[in-house]
Amino acid sequence: MKIGFIGAGKMAQAIISGLDKEKFEVYISSRDFEKTRIIAKNLGVNQAKDNIELAKFVDIVIMSVKPQVMPKVLSEVKDYLEGKLMLSIAAGLTLENLADLTSKQLEIVRIMPNINATIKESTTAICPNELVIDTNLEIAKEIFSSIGQIFQIEEKDFSTFSAIAGSSPAFIYIFIDALSRAGVLHGMPKDLATEIVASTVSASANMLAQSGENPWSLVDKVSSPGGTTVEGIVSLEENRFVASVIDAVTKTIEKDKRL
Ligand SMILES: NC(=O)c1ccc[n+]([C@@H]2O[C@H](COP(=O)([O-])OP(=O)(O)OC[C@H]3O[C@@H](n4cnc5c(N)ncnc54)[C@H](OP(=O)(O)O)[C@@H]3O)[C@@H](O)[C@H]2O)c1
């Protein structure tokens, strides 16, 4: 099966490096031919002469240009997409926007990977339009499963997903930094404290996933009666920790909806 990426930037390269090249024959095209030639060589994939040649040649087109460039690029290639599957990772462009920019008959899957695609641990949302047949949806899922975990969601939930999976790594980094800074306040070197916290955050997420328990029951398990942890938890609550996080997510969603 031939897959073509239009746009060969950070996200396309992250996806391509995770793909099984035995199974998928990968082509790329981008803005600058010479720059794209080097990227194709480094990734061990083929380069198309231009966006149109790529769209004509492949079975699946993955649109990986910036959202503001999408109208121009789709107007170039839309006549060559008939009967193909188009996947779009462009943030903020809905299935309806994409159909308006191409054709009402096109099978389109809207996809939202996150920054962790660069280490093949993306948390990716996927949503097909009503024309996508099951086998094509499975192919889209297979492509994005190669760079992490996928979640098929309703399109109305994309803004929420982009806050709790797209923006949340930034919130989590702030939390990690706050914990390690507290380590520094109490005399530990920053690098060491950050490494300790990152290891604890990663293991706690794995524990949650593997145990199948809900977060609060794990909080209770760490909190001995009259002990040290519950002292810290009460302090977090006095400082509106949970409410602050929820406010931050709500603000992020509201901003996304205004864009
Ligand atoms: N990065 C993320 O964490 C992330 C997360 C979720 C979704 N996304 C989405 O992924 C898409 C790509 O983002 P990115 O971070 O990979 O951006 P990027 O690194 O800037 O890549 C964009 C690519 O598009 C190319 N391009 C520009 N104009 C073009 C044209 N007319 N024809 C063909 N290619 C063209 C660029 O080439 P030049 O470099 O030569 O200009 C570059 O290779 C965006 O729509 C974004 O919303 C990104």
TrEMBL record:
<dbReference type="Pfam" id="PF03807">
    <property type="entry name" value="F420_oxidored"/>
</dbReference>
<dbReference type="InterPro" id="IPR028939">
    <property type="entry name" value="P5C_Rdtase_cat_N"/>
</dbReference>
<feature type="domain" description="Pyrroline-5-carboxylate reductase catalytic N-terminal">
    <location>
        <begin position="2"/>
        <end position="92"/>
    </location>
</feature>
<keyword id="KW-0641">Proline biosynthesis</keyword>
<dbReference type="InterPro" id="IPR000304">
    <property type="entry name" value="Pyrroline-COOH_reductase"/>
</dbReference>
<feature type="binding site">
    <location>
        <position position="30"/>
    </location>
    <ligand>
        <name>NADP(+)</name>
    </ligand>
</feature>
<dbReference type="InterPro" id="IPR008927">
    <property type="entry name" value="6-PGluconate_DH-like_C_sf"/>
</dbReference>
<comment type="similarity">
    <text>Belongs to the pyrroline-5-carboxylate reductase family.</text>
</comment>
<keyword id="KW-0521">NADP</keyword>
<dbReference type="InterPro" id="IPR029036">
    <property type="entry name" value="P5CR_dimer"/>
</dbReference>
<dbReference type="GO" id="GO:0005737">
    <property type="term" value="C:cytoplasm"/>
</dbReference>
<comment type="function">
    <text>Catalyzes the reduction of 1-pyrroline-5-carboxylate (PCA) to L-proline.</text>
</comment>
<dbReference type="GO" id="GO:0004735">
    <property type="term" value="F:pyrroline-5-carboxylate reductase activity"/>
</dbReference>
<keyword id="KW-0963">Cytoplasm</keyword>
<feature type="domain" description="Pyrroline-5-carboxylate reductase dimerisation">
    <location>
        <begin position="155"/>
        <end position="258"/>
    </location>
</feature>
<protein>
    <recommendedName>
        <fullName>Pyrroline-5-carboxylate reductase</fullName>
        <ecNumber>1.5.1.2</ecNumber>
    </recommendedName>
</protein>
<feature type="binding site">
    <location>
        <begin position="6"/>
        <end position="11"/>
    </location>
    <ligand>
        <name>NADP(+)</name>
    </ligand>
</feature>
<feature type="binding site">
    <location>
        <position position="51"/>
    </location>
    <ligand>
        <name>NADPH</name>
    </ligand>
</feature>
<comment type="pathway">
    <text>Amino-acid biosynthesis; L-proline biosynthesis; L-proline from L-glutamate 5-semialdehyde: step 1/1.</text>
</comment>
<keyword id="KW-0560">Oxidoreductase</keyword>
<keyword id="KW-0028">Amino-acid biosynthesis</keyword>
<dbReference type="Pfam" id="PF14748">
    <property type="entry name" value="P5CR_dimer"/>
</dbReference>
<dbReference type="GO" id="GO:0055129">
    <property type="term" value="P:L-proline biosynthetic process"/>
</dbReference>
<dbReference type="InterPro" id="IPR036291">
    <property type="entry name" value="NAD(P)-bd_dom_sf"/>
</dbReference>
<dbReference type="InterPro" id="IPR053790">
    <property type="entry name" value="P5CR-like_CS"/>
</dbReference>
